[in-house]
Amino acid sequence: MIELDYVFRPEEVIVGWDWASAPDWAYAYDAFPGDVHLLVNGEDLSAPWGWVTVLYFALCLQRAVADVEMSGVGVVELTESELTLVLSRADGGIEVRADWVPQAAFVELGELRSASDAFAARVRTDFERTYPATTENPRYREFQSRFR
Fold first, then answer.
1. What whole-number distance in Å separates Cα of residue 110 and Cα of residue 128?
2. Which of 36, 54, 74, 105 has the fewest CB atoms inside 10 Å of its own CB, making it the most exposed?
3. What is the pLDDT of residue 25?
4. CATH of domain 2-145
């Protein structure tokens, strides 16, 4: 079972962007900082530091799952750090390993895909609801298209 959630930490927002005109890189480095809560079959792989760019994490996780399906390995790199979450095929399922915890977790691909898709959709919706001007920005649409 996967539990995938986040807590937005507005106090961690460093740059007060006008999201209607923000550059595409701002969505990876400055958008929606917070904590990511990730529990996979009882193993806690959460990133509760407040500075994780949740929008970027959600989209990268979705892309990493697609990469696992195609090549057997997918990687989520946390912005502004050298930390990674690595997904790889193993023993008929997917091994999920985070640099910041010693244990790995295992999950079925279908469950991981479903959880990552739902998480990315919810984070995008919440971000756009919090910053509605972002939907007017063509650079936001270009940013998202890199993950599909």
1. 27
2. 105
3. 87
4. 3.30.2450
